[in-house]
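Dear colleagues,

As part of the handover before I leave the project, I'm documenting each prediction I ran so the next person doesn't have to rerun anything. This entry is a single chain, and its sequence is reproduced below.
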Amino acid sequence: MTKMKLQIAHQVPGRIRMKVPSVKANPELAEQIKQTFAVIPGIEEVIVNPVTGSVVLHYDTDQHHAFHGQLQHHTGVHCPPPNNEIDALARKIEQEAEYLAEHSHTAKAVVDFFRDFDHQIKIATGNVVDLKILLAGGIAAFTIFEVGANAATPVWVTLAIFALNHMIQANMAAAEQQEEVPATA
């Protein structure tokens, strides 16, 4: 298959929608894409729309991780599967920020600043903490500081447990991804 530019527009377990601009008004390429993706193990249905330039893949969720590995092999595009709602929301925010950055110099400056800030946090903490965790911890600390001793104990304890739980979940997802990376021989 010829090299082409494609971008993951949306994904949920069992379904991925990609934008492929070169498929617009090109039915031959649309058919070639359909045949190429149909051979990936786990694919149940491939829908190519040459009018909108989109490709929708429906796949067996039982083969979730194998499917994503094969998809990366066939397309060269790395798209980690959504782990949980927080990761899916973070990915959607990143996609929106990228879109805005393409259309506004101010948005690009803001996106670049926060991307660099996140990168510096990861370097400083040995990739243990990132901006998502720092933001969640900051909000929890601010809430506890503001509410402080004036509130009943269960409120600030609940907030602290909630923040700690989400920080642990975020780190566990990253640790699981590192464990799943197969060693190359």
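The longest helix spans residues 153-180. DSSP finds six helices and four strands in the chain.

All the best with the project,
I.
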